[in-house]
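Exercise: predict the fold of this chain.
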Amino acid sequence: MDSITQAVLGAAVAEAGFRHRLGRKAVFFGALCGTLPDLDVFTAAIDPWFELQHHRGVTHSLLVLPLVSPLIGWLGWRGAGRRGAWTTWAHCAFWALITHPLLDVCTSYGTQLLAPLSKARFAVDCVSIVDPVYTLPLVLATVLALRRGPGGAPTHALRRRAQAVARGALGWGLVWLAVGAANHRVVEGRFRAALEAAGTPPVHLRVMPTLLNHLAFRVVARDAAGAIHCGTMSVLADVPPALETVPPVDDPAVALALAHPKGALMDRFADGLTGVRVEHENGRTIVFLDDLRYGLSRAPARALWGARAVVEDGAVVSVARTNNRDPAMMKGELGALWSVLWTGRVAP
């Protein structure tokens, strides 16, 4: 999820379980540990393709984070003036670090929990990458944890209240994720039934929360013929989805683009739900590989990002990442989502 959420999650973990032994600095330490795994975003500054390979990779691994927790805990212990036992700081680091990928895996992006042994991306699809209902209680818990009493130091009653709020916020987060998982299951069942009723049973499908909520879901499925059907469905409106279909493209250039290392990487990152468009210009073939997991409610077949491969004389000349987000299109997206949420349809 977003960095603010991960920071306040780490802070709440520290407040709930370690503040009473390690002091106020543990809250800052927990917030820092909560954001550390996302330092891998700087790989995009090296090469935009690195982000697809390495973001949510080894820094989010359930195999790696336990190994680095003792070192980070020791550094925290030294930085806090050696207050408490360094093993307690290591324990705090472990939980603040490990909850980061465990929360990320609940989103749709894909998290490499077993890196570096496996590049498989795991996604539970039960919470949006930005969800204020999940985040705001953690923000409140962090604010209370950092609050000082009249004399500059928190009173015993204030510390107990902050710890209770932190534990409550963490518990509420688990409840909200469980609600998202239940909503996901409902929409997935409806989506699968709608596809089968239309005579296009899916061979692969994804149901993903839309921005700021897990009541309306982006739905995408590939059928046996290779066509990809996409749209938006609401758990509150039990109506057949209004889907757009991206048909398969029979062009030799498509196979060349997908066989290229960068084209294959984009297809793998998109979980095989890659929409293909082909254009011909000046003797060249332009193959667009769209990540259809992410799109707009008003234009379901319009992906937010993808790749552009140039094929000439039977060879791939170049492959570049593309950003298809148009500010004019994004402007009305929240209104479209609101309409889908209550009616199951985008308002005309």
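Check your answer against the key: The chain has a mean pLDDT of 93.
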